[in-house]
From TrEMBL:
UniProt xrefs under SUPFAM superfamilies: Family A G protein-coupled receptor-like
Name of the molecule in the record: G-protein coupled receptors family 1 profile domain-containing protein
PROSITE patterns xref list: G_PROTEIN_RECEP_F1_2
Cellular localisation: Cell membrane
Signal peptide: 1-27
Span of domain G-protein coupled receptors family 1 profile: 75-318
Keyword entries, A-Z: Cell membrane, G-protein coupled receptor, Membrane, Receptor, Signal, Transducer, Transmembrane, Transmembrane helix
A GO term for molecular function: G protein-coupled receptor activity
Top-level division of the source organism's lineage: Eukaryota
Coarse class of the protein's main subcellular location: membrane
GO annotations of cellular component type: plasma membrane
Membrane-crossing segments per the record: 59-85, 97-121, 133-155, 175-196, 211-233, 268-287, 302-322
Originating species: Chytriomyces confervae
Length: 350
């Protein structure tokens, strides 16, 4: 896949997102207010008639989303511990702190939603009917995704500025501007759930807050996706030109091609991970009003699982792209194995 083809694919997806969102903003679903017999379909714990879609929702939510976040707590926590333990060698440059921020957001995302599920279980799912609980869950979901997008754009921007040899001082204004923008957007999201209840824990029920919510989400998703794709492939084109100028003789052509392919591969992986995890959810939020409530919640739970997978994919990608972190983690594992071996040897000989 070339840079131009991926860019075209992103443009098509963005257009589909916009069209779907316009459809969704036009009005609430006919069954937006749940009846007494299906008010808990979102958690798969309703007391009403069971269908294959509600059963599938239960399996996805409790067998997929919940364990994914629980694994995210362990994985992100472990890598964060390794980074902080080796902070003198792993936290030297600004991009290292961007890695730390990205992992911290994934860790927070994982902890919040693991606790959210545990609280639901602890209260025998009765808390699912609570209006305040629904608003808090919906607001935290949206805001958490905002933070993850912010961290991913920071990472793409830092790589871009690094290859362009822009100093930290010169590029700081862009990071501050993006942070302020996303903070304001997140605040707007929180306000919409303060002003309106939410029955699906995704968007507000009342018309005006719902329109504001969709407007903020459309703008922020388009901006986030666009910046990530643009920055990564601008970095690729820039590196490609630099390599072409530097390795201009025929003997170095093969090396240049290999390096270009490596940069392109990395750019595609990072961009594709974001698109695969978040674009389906964004699209489904827009078109879900066209289906029944049970089908809508099933689709939401499927796309929520893709969103949840980001807390697993991101740390693995960082381990893949950042050898020092990977080596530090391997060193910790080897150190513990050596300690255990020495301890066993001590008990054997004594």
């Amino acid at each position: 896949m070339s840079a131009s083809s991926l860019t075209r694919a992103f443009a098509v997806a963005a257009a589909a997102l916009l069209a779907a969102a316009i459809t969704a903003v036009s009005g609430a679903p006919a069954d937006a207010t749940p009846s007494a017999d299906n008010s808990n379909i979102g958690m798969g714990m309703g007391a009403g008639p069971t269908t294959w879609s509600t059963e599938a929702s239960k399996v996805i939510l409790w067998g997929g989303v919940f364990p994914t976040y629980a694994c995210g707590v362990f994985l992100n926590g472990l890598i964060l511990f390794v980074i902080l333990y080796n902070r003198r060698t792993l936290l030297l440059h600004r991009i290292d702190f961007v890695y730390l921020f990205l992992l911290s957001v994934c860790m927070l995302f994982s902890v919040v939603f693991t606790v959210r599920f545990v609280v639901s279980i602890a209260y025998n799912f009765e808390v699912e009917d609570n209006d305040v609980f629904a608003r808090v869950v919906a607001a935290i979901t949206s805001v958490s995704i905002f933070f993850i997008f912010t961290a991913n754009v920071f990472l793409a921007a830092e790589r871009y500025f690094t290859f362009r040899e822009v100093s930290d001082r010169q590029s700081l204004k862009y990071f501050v501007g993006l942070a302020v923008h996303n903070f304001l957007m997140a605040a707007a999201i929180v306000v919409t759930f303060i002003l309106s209840p939410t029955t699906n824990r995704s968007w507000p029920d009342d018309p005006i807050p719902r329109i504001i919510w969709f407007a903020v989400i459309i703008w922020s998703f388009a901006l986030g996706f666009g910046l990530i794709v643009y920055l990564y492939f601008s970095t690729y084109r820039m590196v490609s030109r630099q390599l072409k100028d530097t390795l201009s003789n025929h003997k170095m052509d093969e090396l240049r091609i290999l390096l270009e392919r490596n940069v392109l591969k990395n750019s595609i992986i990072m961009s594709a991970a974001i698109i695969v995890c978040y674009m389906p959810n964004a699209l489904w939020l827009g078109i879900s009003r066209l289906v029944t409530r049970e089908q809508r919640m099933l689709g939401l739970n499927i796309t929520y699982e893709l969103v949840a997978l980001d807390v697993i994919i991101t740390p693995f990608l960082l381990l893949y792209f950042v050898p020092p972190i990977r080596e530090a983690l391997s060193g910790l594992s080897r150190g513990r194995m050596n300690e255990r071996w020495e301890d066993d040897e001590y008990h054997t000989t004594h």
